[in-house]
Every structure is written in C-alpha cells, then in structure tokens.
Amino acid sequence: MNNEPIIKDPSSSDTRWEFLDGSTRSAVNLRTSFVGIGTYRPGWRWSEHVGKQTGKPSENHIGYILSGSFIVKSANGEESVVGPGEAFELAPGHDAWVNGDQPCVALDFGCNEKHEL
Fold first, then answer.
1. SUPFAM superfamilies, from UniProt (predicted)?
2. Distance CA 47, CA 113 (A)
3. 66: which DSSP letter?
4. I need a labelling partner for 8 at 20 to 30 A (CA). Which of 20, 26, 76, 78 fits?
5. Strands (E), the chain
6. Nearest in space to 91 (alpha carbons), one of 107, 111, 75
7. CB 37 within 8 A of CB 11
8. 1-26, pLDDT tens digit by residue?
9. What is the torsion angle, in degrees rounded to the nearest 10, for the CA atoms of residue 56, residue 43, residue 102 and residue 97?
C-alpha cells in the first residue's frame, strides 16, 4: 500500500456534476474514500434535480453543512432542518431540498468503492 499523503482540492476535482437547476457538486477521490462539495441553489431538491436526472433512488448519505441549510425528509416522512456546522447521515429513500433563499454549501463523504452521484 502506498503510504504517501494524498492531498487534493475539491474545487479542482476529479469528478464534477451540474444539476438540472445549475447547482453543482464536485468530488475528489482519495485512497479509500471521497470528499465532495456541493453548492445547491435555492429551489434545488434531490428528487427533482438529481433523482430525475440519474433515474436512481437516494442512497445512504453522510455530510456536513458549511453554509445555508437543507430540509431533509426520511423515507418514513419525518422532516428535519440541518444547518451550518451540523453533520448528518441520511438513510436510503430520503429526499432533501434547500431551505430558504440562500444557497446551501455542503460537504459529503463516502467510501470509494461506490462513488456515484
């Protein structure tokens, strides 16, 4: 195994997506994991701007809000607001959308073996 440090800037990412509404997400692959950063515009909603674009259901999602906020809805219908400085983990079947009229900037984390949108 290579023990050299891996240092990457997510803004100069390995992978970048632009969603139907112009929101963006980029990610860098590290040795065993990835770190993504997304800037989601007011009005962005996972089910409308990602699910429809990819045709995939939501999967487990781990993240941290840098600015703005999301409303998240679990598969059983429970809604919560997650804002700056808060970490979250969402189970498959969730939905999420930008709360209010400010963009939401969030980090997300995961294992490299399944790094897809």
1. RmlC-like cupins (SSF51182)
2. 24
3. E
4. 20
5. 15-18, 24-29, 33-40, 61-67, 70-73, 79-82, 87-90, 95-98, 104-111
6. 75
7. yes
8. 678 898 998 877 768 888 888 999 99
9. -40
By C-alpha distance, which of 45, 49, 64 is closest to 105? 64
Which is it for the CA torsion 25, 29, 54, 76, positive or negative? negative
Do the Cβ atoms of 16 and 7 come closer than 8 Å? Answer: no
Q: What is the mean pLDDT of the chain?
A: 88
The answer to whether 83 touches 102, Cβ cutoff 8 Å, is no
Measured distance CA(15)–CA(113) in Å, rounded: 15
Query: What gap in Å lies between CA 11 and CA 27, rounded to an integer?
Result: 8
DSSP lists the bridge partners of residue 65 as: 106
d(CA 108, CA 88): 9
- 35-56 pLDDT tens trace: 999 999 999 999 888 877 777 8
Q: Residue type for 13, please?
A: S
